[in-house]
């Protein structure tokens, strides 16, 4: 007959181990506390304060007057804001979709061709990301100038009829500013995709080639699915940059000519610091934040990993 005593001893010890484990798990959260406190003070509290200010009619100096949802209702009916949102969505094409497409095409080409000095080229392509946006804006303002190198190049090849003040043209100012954003972000996308492509097993490419796959099919069946995570990160970063864009627009066109390049951030700046409509500017900020969260959520949901 088997003695049950040896089995009861470990059973008695389980609650103690469970308690120690739960205490250990709980104590691990204390290591996160400093970061959470800093995040709450410098991120969550300003957001909450902005949301609170959006409910007041306040000029930033005198006492504010309770306005409730009036600032939000005004923003929804303001045609300048809806027009600015249209410009922001147009910038998504330049800041996010175009750089992502260029990065994927170049990554697909480089996955088939061995390039010497790839680390150097990656550093050069990433250079716009570490430059101050004000510096980039001033440099491109000179490039687009009527006497700048772009127009000089067009005159040199006999296309002087195309020269113009690019940033002063009502029809071309928006795409001209958009191309600055494309130049800034395509290096980031390409570096992300190249890093992801290096993790793809070479056997997959060899198998695809043995099956007779050409360059396009190899890209669509091997490279593109393997870069889903990198594409997701690139789109979230670049779409967010396009929607909250301010530095490039303000330092190149200040929203002009007219309002052809104005974005919501321009009206937030003008309301907060120029026209002294702080409550209205705060309401636009809250709406822009919600829009950015919604768009990035759609991007994450669309490109999520599907188990099937």
TrEMBL record:
One of its GO terms (cellular component) is plasma membrane. Residues 85-299 form the ABC transmembrane type-1 domain. The keyword Lipid biosynthesis does not apply. It comes from the Bacteria. Keywords: Cell membrane, Membrane, Transmembrane, Transmembrane helix, Transport. PROSITE patterns: ABC_TM1 (PS50928). Gene3D superfamilies: MetI-like. Its main location: membrane. The keyword Protease does not apply. GO terms for biological process: transmembrane transport. The chain crosses the membrane at residues 27-48, 89-111, 123-143, 172-195, 278-303. It is found in: Cell membrane. It is a multi-pass membrane protein. Belongs to the binding-protein-dependent transport system permease family. This is Raffinose/stachyose/melibiose transport system permease protein.
